[in-house]
Amino acid sequence: MRSRQFWYVLVVAILVNPCLYYSVNWLPTYFAQDRRLAPGRQLVWILTLTYLALGLGNLACGAVALWLTRLSCSIESARRSVFLAATVFASACALVHFVRAISSAVLALVMVNFGLGMWISMYLTMAQEVSRTDISTAALAGSDPGTHEGA
Q1: 61 is in which domain, residue-wise?
Q2: How many whole angstroms separate alpha carbon 131 and alpha carbon 116?
């Protein structure tokens, strides 16, 4: 807990995890109740697109960070840039309530999930770097307190 990196990871976890799980669990209910879509082909395709965007955000996070570091950006600058881009995408959630067309709502939610995917990937990367001696155990520390020394 003396590591600054630990506190960065904790803040990111507090910010992104509720958003991710809310989005993942809320989307089917949102489309059924607010947009009046019945379960079926249309809803399946919409949910597939939004969840696919989450996965593409995971991949984009690494690709953008790698590209930026190859352009001589420091790792910290590359990460900040990725976080900023992810935040811009995720902020599209503010638009969902105000758009009438289902296609516009879907587009906004695709952007949100893409941004959340970027956030999650960067968070998991940061969690693995909290401790130089206990690499990758910071994310697992909460799962079995007796087996990990902690960060």
Answers
A1: 4-128
A2: 25
